[in-house]
Amino acid sequence: MGRGSKVDLIVQRDSRGFPVIYKTSIKGAIKSHCSIAEELAKVSEDIFGEDVEPGSVKVDYGLSKVVFSDAYLLAFPVAIEENLFVYVSSPYMLKRIRLIAPTESKLALFINSLLNKCRSLKGNSAIVSESIRDIFESNLMFERKIDVIGTFSETINLPEAEYPFSEFSKRLAILSDEVLEEAMGELPHAYRISTDYQLKKVKYGGLWSEEYVPSGSIFLGLMLVSRYEFSEKEEKPVKIDLSYFLNELFKNNVLYLFLGRKETVGKGLVKIVRY
After folding, report:
1. Chain segment 184-227, per-residue pLDDT in tens
2. Average of pLDDT values for 36-64?
3. What are phi and psi of 171, to 5 degrees?
4. Does residue 257 form part of some domain?
5. Residue 231 in this model has a pLDDT that exceeds 50
6. How many domains does the chain have?
7. Cβ atoms of 206 and 193 closer than 8 Å
8. Which pLDDT band holds residue 176 (cuts at 50, 70, 90)?
9. Are strands 172-175 and 147-152 parallel, antiparallel or unpaired?
């Protein structure tokens, strides 16, 4: 979490103000999960490297065999009217995802096809899925009328597709970067209090506000896994196999984690899908 002026605790953001999940947060949460999971605790230190006590010096210690990237926002849901929502993205968001998406993956090819259609995006214009074009004819988004200048019919199913994620490409609207950048300044937030249980009242200074990324938002990041490691006994790198670790971590290719230390208020639960 960071600190902001209008909201006390804002979500992690990049230099342009778009939400991002820092790699240190992801690795810390996964490492914590592995340390308490019975089958993973045995290999946790070997996978993530040894912990070095502050102030101590150790010449040789194990390095982490997994490396993470930041997780970038691909799209987030926006309510248009009762029981109706669309996913919203922008060229800037799509370009960042293209940089880390596997080159020949269906997602990368899908994003490339979308970016080719977005060259004329500007102002209040949008490129939308054909299935939601009629929605923009009668609704406002971010308190403005959006002009649909193009559509696409391609669809893509994300891994472990479940509602609403299975609706991603069918409900996708790509707006200009300027419109999305302005909208990012008004993410949902809630006021929270810290109470004194003995006195049954709010602690002095115990009122603050927290910002949240809309539930159902989709982020994409990389987890790079080593295939070789150096050994003092061997002149050449030794091949290693981390399939056991990955299969235990992502059972059925899915991992549920809490990010941001908000378990007590039911916030921060994320579903990580192995893609």
Report:
1. 988 988 888 888 888 888 888 788 888 999 999 999 999 999 99
2. 76
3. -120, 20
4. no
5. yes
6. 1
7. yes
8. very high
9. unpaired
Give the Cα separation of 136 and 152 in Å (integer).
15
- 3 state SS of 156: coil
The owner of tokens 């009328």 is 145
pLDDT at 264 over 50: yes
Residue 254: HSE in the Cβ half-sphere, 13 Å Cα cutoff: 9
The answer to whether 34 touches 41, Cβ cutoff 8 Å, is yes
Residues 261, 264, 268, 269, CA torsion sign: positive
Check if the beta carbon of residue 245 is closer than 8 Å to that of residue 43.
yes
**256 in a domain, yes or no?**
no
Q: What is the pTM of this model?
A: 0.89
In angstroms, the Cα distances linking 114 to 142, 150, 189, 212, 227 are 22, 10, 31, 28, 34
Residue 117 resides in a domain = yes
Longest Cα separation, the chain: 70
Angstrom distance (rounded) from CA 186 to CA 144 = 15
Q: Which domain holds residue 158?
A: 73-186
Question: Mean per-residue pLDDT for 106-122?
Answer: 94
- Asked if residue 159 has a cis previous peptide bond (ω within 30° of 0), the answer is no
Chain-centre distance for alpha carbon 39: 26
Q: Angle at Cα 94 formed by Cα 158 and Cα 267, nearest 5°?
A: 60
Return the amino acid letter for 69.
Answer: S
Residue of 199 and 90 predicted with greater confidence: 90
User: Would 145 be classed as within a structural domain?
Assistant: yes
Measured CA to CA, the distance from residue 126 to residue 163 in angstroms comes to 24
Burial (CB < 10 A; 0-12, 13-18, 19+), residue 249, is buried
